[in-house]
Amino acid sequence: MLNNRFILVRRFNILLAILSLFLLLIAIRLFWLQIYKNDFYLERSKSNSERIEPIKSLRGLIFDRNDNILAENILTYNLEIDIENKSLEELNSIIGELSKILSISEHERDLFFKMRSERKFLRKIPLKININNEELTFFASKKFLFPDVNLKEEFLRSYPHGIENAHLIGYINRISKKDLEKIENDPEMLDDYFGMTHIGKQGIENSFEDSLRGKSGFKKIRVNAKNSFIAEIENKKALDGEDLILSIDLNLQRKSHELLKNYKGSLIMTDISNNEVLAYQSNPAFDPNLFVNGISFADWDKLNMDPSKPMLDRVTNAVYPPGSTIKPFLSIAGLENNVINTDYSINDPGFFQLPKTKKIFMDWKKEGHGNVNIITAIAESCDVYFYDLAYRLGIEKMDNSLRKFSFGQKTGINLPTEKSGILPSPEWKLKHHKKKWNAYETINTSIGQGDFLSSPAQLVHGLNILLNNKQMPPLSLIKDKFSDVPLSNEKITDEKYIEIVKKGMQEVTSSNGTFRSIANNNKNKIAGKTGTAQVFSLKSQTYDEDNIADHLKDHSLFIGYAPYDNPQVSIAVIIENGGHGSTVAAPIAKKMIDFYFETIK
Amino acid sequence: MTKFFTFLFSRTDKQLFILLLIILLFSLNLIGQAVGFHSTFFLKQLLFIFTGLIIFVLVSILNLRFLFRHSLIIYVLSILLLLLTAVFGTEINGSKRWLDFGVFKFQSSEILKLTLPIFLVSLIDYFKNKSQTYSELAFLLISFIPFFIILKQPDLGSGLIILFSGLIIIFLNGLSLKKILIGILGLLILLPYAWLNILKDYQKGRVLNLIDPFSNPLDGGYHTIQSSIAIGSGGLFGKSSEFSSQHDLLFLPETHTDFIFAVLSENYGFLGNIIFFLIFFLFIYKLVNISINLHSHSHRLLAMTYVMIFILCFLINIAMVSGLFPIVGIPLPLISYGGSSLFIYLIMFALINSLNYNKTLIAD
């Protein structure tokens, strides 16, 4: 054991050498962390302690022209769960515990998990919306059992006159996956929607989404590892949405809802002077309040499976053959192209034979109207007069004139789903059907049949252009909001032609007109034009109104205005499968107009 | 009075003592930064250091022959203490490692760091005329007894340190190369068995987290990630005050105990770490020097073993905090908050100091 010490020291040195290597490794590691990856870890340490909390903007209110509220935000309490770092099982168990003290429906649970899977950046997700006072106090007393469940004051969108304004106001709903894709592709939108849960889906709520929503803000705060607040770093205030005052009159909305209640159809009433919409009604409708927090599957199915299509906005999103309501406009075409004048008259034998062919076009009145001029042709809605007019005018000139009244084009009303309808022309037919125009189609077009389609909104817009004899701004749902596009004051046509057509429309409500039923009861001086649009062309059979399936019955139409000596309001009414224009649509229009003057004065 | 102090300091290596004081002041500063200079932890640590220094002085003047002579009793008492802990110990975070003395909880496994080497070294004379293999197997057995008890607490980290101290003595005492190779081979064979049967799930998790801490950021990986962030964000000179620190915001738990190195790295940066290493290097250099120059074989062996334990724990703790090593509950020697570990190390250094003073008195 003489070299004991030598061995010992050597072995000791070996161990020291090994540990020195270990130390070297540690030094390299520290260099890597502190020098090489310093930026990365600094950033990590910052984001570790920073939380961004969204501040929702308050959605703008919607009023009617008389300051009646149509869409409001009511203060409610929601039950929210902080889902951060929680597994599905944990959340299920929290909800399970909660359901022991509160009623939590399957629907609420589904919506919660749907939102959780779709909205990746939300930390808190509402489980129960608008809990009542009793539940509120009960939960508050048990709150200590649920550290991650909180009561959150939240404004809930509410439509106090629900169904009466359903198609007009539309509704908001939770942001869907599809909306989210759109939002996430636009960085600016992503900012505005930060933390927002709802988006306008239909009607005004959709088309004015940007101004109603405002811009959400955020609060950047520093928290510690227990998520307790330490300090505020940045605060960007939310910009609340703007209120919207509509041109709509709530009283007229209610009245129109009541009048259309038993029909499938729609109605639009406007202020002739500025093209502002006073009433906008489509029936059947729905309760928009159902949608605000996610409609239940049962309710959604019910609305969608209903054959009467309550979700369809029949004012702008449905187009119909205009039928005889096109005749006043066609009259202008005839007059300004000198095909007809006040002295021109024809003898109507009850049918029209297309020259050089054997094709016969029947008048709706089998025995014929006898001798008719432009005034009686409009008043009695003589088909043969307009067949003859169209034949001599030709489709091109016809279209040129009708286009001035905006047929086949959108009215530009501020709603998301407006359809443009169809003004048939040889070009249109070639483009869409790859077929040549036939002469008889010109004849069909003259009575608003064939491929001719327009929405009630288009009819009233066209009527307002006619009555003003100038281009009108787009139909507007907003009070005192004029189109940015400067419109020419140039007359569309010679004023005297307008006067002739107006005279014809005035005669419609006289004792000789198609709407003669009000001839002795027309204190508000209503003028207009009835229309009956064929849904189904009957070949050999005769049309027997009493023995035909409801859905094959003609659509009943009416366009009108009042008073005829000083036009103020105009209206278009369509009742699907309602039969003659004079029997259903026209009386509804009269009641609306009468109600208007009653309430205005 | 002055005589007493001159007596005391005449028996103490002044350089070693000054370095020790510097390190302890460093520790106080870091604990203060981790938990606040007015916190009870800080005040308690101040008390521990004060008490520790008194113990250091007392042990320095102890007659060491007494220790060697009664090493068997000391060993048996240590084992009894471990068993006592197993029965009456205080359970914290699922493991029973502490004996509660009211004012102070004592981690009983720490004492084995001190007593096992004394017992083993004292046996060297006893085995002088026996075969080397015989003594080595005996050493192994003696080391394994406390290892298994500590393993059951459970405290794998401390247990392995105790086992290692035994192995270090065997190695330093001239274990042949053949046996070393056999040992390594045996370890390799045993390793899969240990992985499957001995290691608990959380212990395996800690090893796996090391490989990929971000795979499990909220459970086991959390400490590794948070301490890496703390260290990494320290940069070269330490994190400026405009950034919130990891430990202030409680992201990094246990900063005053096992993770105190992260506080050092975050506040003083890479440069601070280098200075810290330099101080420790000087201190260790001093210890190594003393150890090598002791006159008796058994004294050298004991001192070297203590130095090895000290260096090993020091490196393992830093490796663990910087994410190079699984999370095992080994505090940073002399720096981490806590009395047990501090007292044991101070006693170790006091013993080395005492051996140094007495080397002229004790013949080989």
Kindly report how far apart the N and C termini of chain A lie. Answer: 127 Å
Give the proportion of residues in helices of chain A: 25-40%
Mean pLDDT over the residues of chain B: 84
Order of strands side by side in the largest beta sheet of chain B?
A: 1-2-3
**Count of individual beta strands of chain A:** 21
- C-alpha end-to-end distance of chain B: 35 Å
Q: Count of helices of chain B?
A: 14
Oligomer: heterodimer
Radius of gyration of chain A: 35 Å
Task: Evaluate the radius of gyration of chain B.
Answer: 21 Å
Morphology call of chain B: globular
Broad structural category of chain B: mainly alpha
The CATH topology name of the largest domain in chain A reads Beta-lactamase
Number of domains of chain A: 2
Please outline the helices and strands.
The complex is a heterodimer of chains A (601) and B (364).
Chain A: H1 4-36, H2 38-49, E1 50-55, E2 62-63, E3 69-82, H3 88-101, H4 106-118, E4 124-128, H5 133-142, E5 149-158, H6 166-169, E6 172-174, H7 177-184, H8 187-192, E7 198-200, H9 203-207, H10 209-213, E8 214-215, E9 217-223, E10 229-236, E11 239-240, E12 244-245, H11 250-260, E13 265-271, E14 276-283, H12 297-305, H13 327-336, E15 345-348, E16 351-353, E17 360-362, E18 370-373, H14 374-379, H15 383-393, H16 395-404, H17 426-433, H18 439-446, H19 456-468, H20 495-508, E19 527-533, E20 555-562, E21 569-575, H21 585-600
Parallel strand pairs in A: 2-12
Antiparallel strand pairs in A: 1-9, 2-3, 3-4, 3-5, 6-7, 8-11, 9-10, 13-14, 13-21, 15-18, 16-17, 19-20, 20-21
Chain B: H1 2-10, H2 14-35, H3 40-60, H4 64-69, H5 71-88, E1 90-92, E2 95-100, E3 105-107, H6 109-126, H7 132-151, H8 156-172, H9 177-198, H10 201-211, H11 221-234, H12 260-292, H13 297-321, H14 339-358
Antiparallel strand pairs in B: 1-2, 2-3
Helix pairs in contact in B: 2-3, 2-12, 3-14, 5-6, 5-7, 6-7, 6-8, 6-13, 6-14, 7-8, 8-13, 11-12, 12-13, 13-14
